[in-house]
Amino acid sequence: MKLHPVYPFSAVVCLCVASAVLLVVTRSAAQPTPSPDAPPALTVKATSAVAQRWPQTLAAVGSIAAWQEVVIGAEIGGQRLSRLLVDVGDRVKQGQLLAQLSPGTLEADLNASRAALQEAEVNAAETGRAAARAKALQGTDILSAQAIDQALAAGDAAQARLAAARARVQADTLRLAYTQVRAPDDGVISARPAVEGVLVQAGAEIMRLQRQGRLEWRAELPGPELGRVAPGQAVVINPGGAQATEGRVRKVSPQVDPQSRTGIVYVDLKPAAPVRAGLFARGELLLDQHTVLTLPETAVLLRDGFSYVLRIDGDRVRQQKVALGARRGDRVEIREGIAADTAVVESGVGFLADGMTVRVTAVSPNASPQTTTR
Fold first, then answer.
1. Which domain holds residue 146?
2. Are residues 172 and 187 in the same domain?
3. C-alpha separations of 293 from 48, 322, 337, 367 in Å
4. Total tally of structural domains belonging to the chain
5. How far is CA 101 from CA 94, 98, 188, 334, 374, in A?
6. Within a domain: residue 370?
7. Among the residues of 59-105, which ranges form H helices?
8. How far apart are CA 279 and CA 258, in angstroms?
9. Rounded to two decimals, what is the model's pTM?
10. Residue 197 forms part of a structural domain
11. 248-271 tens-digit pLDDT
């Protein structure tokens, strides 16, 4: 009789459990593991570069000064300044009385000159009649030739004394008129160092006048840049702390300072410009117009010292390196990197990375091509 081996009950139980575990593992390996939920795609707007006409500018710095400043002084000396009729900042007209000097003895001198003139006129008239009578007797034996010559010479001398007396009156009249200091032109009083009561010497400064109230900006430019500037070009000036104003190039300096290697560009300002002489100002000379591709500044990403845009490629974005140019308002010039019809992300580029999935919900309308002037 053949005997079969007898297995313990515990061994049978362990065998059954191992079979069950092997079955579960096999089924688990056969079924795919569910993947975690993908992050939601960000919503972006698309835009593209726009061709615009932008002005080509040349930056400069300089000071604002009077177009011409006249030093008004006394034309005679030794007189006391009795009255000052205007003050700093006053607008005056040509010929307007600005100051009065004490006439002193000038009026008396003029009266004496007039009296001397009357005497010279009487003497000239008398000697003139005598010379006429002597001349009428020429060729007769009534008067000698010597007496006739003396009479004629006396008449000529009297006429010379009369002319000298008239000149003296004119000189004294002019000296008296110099006691009235008048404006040589329309303008604005910019300084008044003199005070009433001071003894004025000839040529001493009484006040200064900005002729016609005109101001100009004297921009300093390096010598090589002067050739790009021409009279008539428009200029935008930004004085520190004051409102920007406009002007026109009047003339360009024909020489360069040998020390600083810079030349001066003289820019006429508008009469109502809100600036004052002596201010330091920065400005831009508008040289020409040229066409550039521009994007909103929000479409440009600055990363690792370079500039990028995120180009839209289907439902993904691709990082594209670009070269930037000038900035004007909220737009920036794109010199290299993309074409005019390339769709890029308009804003929010800091939240995106190369290859990310996005959802474009709307296309931002392009700005129409335009000419930007200032």
1. 103-178
2. no
3. 9, 12, 11, 11
4. 4
5. 19, 10, 21, 68, 51
6. no
7. none
8. 25
9. 0.61
10. yes
11. 999 999 999 999 899 999 999 988
